[in-house]
Amino acid sequence: MARRPQYVPATPEVLEWARNERQMSLREAADALELTTAELTAIEEGQRPPTADVLRAMMRVYGRSESILLLPVPPPPAPQVTDRRSAGRREGAPELGTIRALREGRLVQGLVSELLAEDRELLPRAQIVAATEEDDPEEIARDERRRLRATIELQRSWKAGGPSLTGWRALLQAHGVIVLSKDIPRDDCRGVALTGDGLVPLIIVTTDDSYAGRIFTLFHEYGHLIRRSASYCAVGFQEAEELERWCDRFSAAFLMPRADVERLLTTQRFRSLEPGDWTLSDIERGASWFRVSPFAFARRLSDLGLSTFYRRHLRELWERDRRARRAPRPDQSAGVPSPVAAVREFGTAAGGAILEALHRGLVDRSEFVSATGVRGDQIGDFEKHLAEQRMRESA
Amino acid sequence: MTQGRLDLQGGEPLLVVYAIDTSTLMWLDGLNLEPDQSRRFEPQESALIWDGLDRLASQGCLKTIRMVREELADNDREALERIASHGRKTLAPAVTNRTRAAFRSVVAQFPNVINPDWKRDPADPWIVAYAETYGYTVITDELPARLHASRRNQRRTFIPDMCDGRTPPVPWTSLRDLASREGWLPA
To answer: What is the pTM of this model?
Structure first.
């Protein structure tokens, strides 16, 4: 005898919300759930409840737990962020991976901000200068380098690649900025800045990029924090473009201060070069000196009127940059134990603050596990790797 | 029959069945610590209380819900194995529409106990829903929000808050109180 279907009490609007969050059309979702579009429409319009089997299928297809699908009302919408920096300068809604990273970033930001309200010593207080489009990014970058004590000697003391990214990240974290590293699809979003009243400033940088690309993104997003631009939720296209250009100029000026570029050009290798003489090898040498990408260095020289290489070889540089992003990276998370991956993802600032809050009883283990993804029996390993990372950063 | 598991209501003996919460077992095993890093239960006390829990479990009077077992698998495997050694009688029934309805009612009343970004089912509202559905008494060492020192925790909702806030209230007890009542600990 056929088993009678068991219908489940679920709110139709919640099921529709879960499908939309997954960015699936009715047809796509119905196919994945092995329903007809009409059947799924009937469920979402409340004409009939889902069966237990359909609810289980929804859990799998929508990537949500039963608890979430049984919520009596849909959760409030996630805050909109318009300042993502994408490789492809995409318009429109972010991809699923970007949305997930944004939500997780907001979760960490909210948690750490609450913890800081409780205990100010968990993280240094961020004192980020505020600027508008009227302010010269060159001057702001120069002042910020001074304030952060980011000397050129310090910058040059870091090896190119991972150590350089670690160094810059540690510097910002030491000044109260949380930097998360997340696997966001690079063509959709390379980085995000999240700010707001009473919230600790937070930057997310994709892992799906070259180290030099990530470093540039880090300071592009830092530029957004300076412009307080995560609150620009309804900016027009022109305004957004102005903002993006400002942040690009800030990042370039921060990583390659004009005075240091000019000083480099007085050294033997470069001193005889006219603006039209630069070769790719010269560009690579200069980029390596600042630990940035050839693309970024060539563009900086162009903006400063010191080389025409960028304008002459733009496509070549762009292709090179894309290839660099696509190259396999040694720090892919596959196979990496979760405590190690979590330390990489959360960094020493957020990871350390949440761990300290756990020790002080401000969060319990289940909250810690939810926020970090580290299993309860791996907290000791997380602590150990965090201590090792702190030592690397202080070195 | 074990003294203490019989409540006398109107002269009729009533068998009390308990549902235990994850963090309580972790406090018991010294995996959750107080802010000053001390244990809530000394190892000798833990051993005696575990003996008492074993007796409850062997009599089918100690239940764990699926969500608690999942949390224990990640956080306190020894506790999970010890309870599971008593067999299926320690398992609360699978989720039914009655528990689902109770769960929906609990999270409608206490929306901050669940976060839409959590990937796993949170055990706390489910344990209250189960207790409401099957008449369990919840064993939890969580404190009600008003008794927390931290302002953040004062704004949160803990299992005792949910239990006390339901109509009618869901009975709950701390593990230490239970151990005292049952005579598991020396006076």
So the answer is: 0.76
